[in-house]
């Protein structure tokens, strides 16, 4: 199975109050943590769907990291643009740029359990999280999404979705406000 990782990073950070994806967490931009998690996935490439001007850093080595710049901040537009850029892939992992603590081994576990299902997601205490692994059979339905809507609605109450029950709440942890980022900061051990 040929898989691609998408890192969605085109939003405007309206609740954060400034450019949250460039805000530092453990000494590097928040977005870099998501890119690193995407590169740890069993993928042939990583596509970062980002707004113009966002610093994506340099990522030598494999898998390659490519930028796809879009002007729309709508989640549906980011997802559709990323899927179009991943043409030919059997599936895509969807990582969110504001989810810095996604466990690096989770994507491989999802790839191992997806089987013939349309999606595989981690689930913590009954709540689905990220990354999401979406099968190419789902792509035509994603093309119909609008506004700030992700694939969640398409996956609810579907029997063809499999879950990896996890003990790590990081699959749900996103940064919306400056306080969220401050709570994640590593303690100073010096």
Topology, element by element:
Blueprint: E1 3-9, E2 24-25, E3 28-29, H1 30-39, E4 45-50, E5 65-69, H2 75-85, E6 91-96, H3 106-113, E7 119-124, E8 127-128, E9 132-135, H4 139-142, H5 152-155, E10 161-165, H6 178-184
Parallel strand pairs: 1-4, 1-6, 4-5, 7-10
Antiparallel strand pairs: 2-3, 6-9, 7-8, 7-9
Helix content: 10-25%
Q: What is the CATH architecture annotation?
A: Alpha-Beta Complex
- Would you report the number of β strands? 10
Distance between the termini: 46 Å
Number of helices: 6
Radius of gyration: 16 Å
Q: CATH fold name, please?
A: Spore Coat Polysaccharide Biosynthesis Protein SpsA, Chain A
Assess the beta-strand content as a share of residues.
Answer: 15-25%
Record keyword descriptors for this entry.
single chain, 190 residues, alpha/beta, Spore Coat Polysaccharide Biosynthesis Protein SpsA, Chain A, two-stranded antiparallel ribbon, 10 strands, 24% strand, globular, Nucleotide-diphossugar_trans, NTP transferase domain-containing protein, transferase activity
């Amino acid at each position: 199975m040929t898989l691609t990782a998408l890192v969605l990073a085109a939003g405007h950070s309206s609740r954060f109050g400034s450019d949250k994806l460039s805000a530092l967490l453990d000494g590097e931009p928040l977005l870099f943590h998501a890119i690193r998690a995407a590169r740890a996935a069993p993928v042939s490439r990583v596509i970062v769907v980002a707004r113009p001007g966002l610093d994506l850093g340099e990522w030598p080595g494999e898998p390659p990291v490519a930028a796809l710049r879009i002007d729309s901040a709508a989640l549906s537009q980011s997802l559709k643009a990323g899927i179009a850029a991943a043409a030919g892939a059997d599936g895509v992992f969807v990582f969110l740029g504001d989810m810095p603590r996604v466990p690096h081994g989770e994507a491989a576990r999802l790839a191992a359990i997806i089987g013939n299902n349309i999606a595989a997601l981690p689930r913590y205490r009954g709540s689905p999280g990220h990354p999401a692994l979406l099968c190419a059979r789902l792509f035509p339905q994603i093309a119909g999404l609008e506004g700030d809507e992700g694939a969640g609605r398409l996956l609810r109450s579907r029997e063809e979705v499999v879950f990896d029950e996890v003990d790590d709440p990081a699959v749900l942890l996103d940064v919306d406000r400056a306080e969220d980022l401050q709570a994640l900061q590593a303690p100073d051990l010096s």
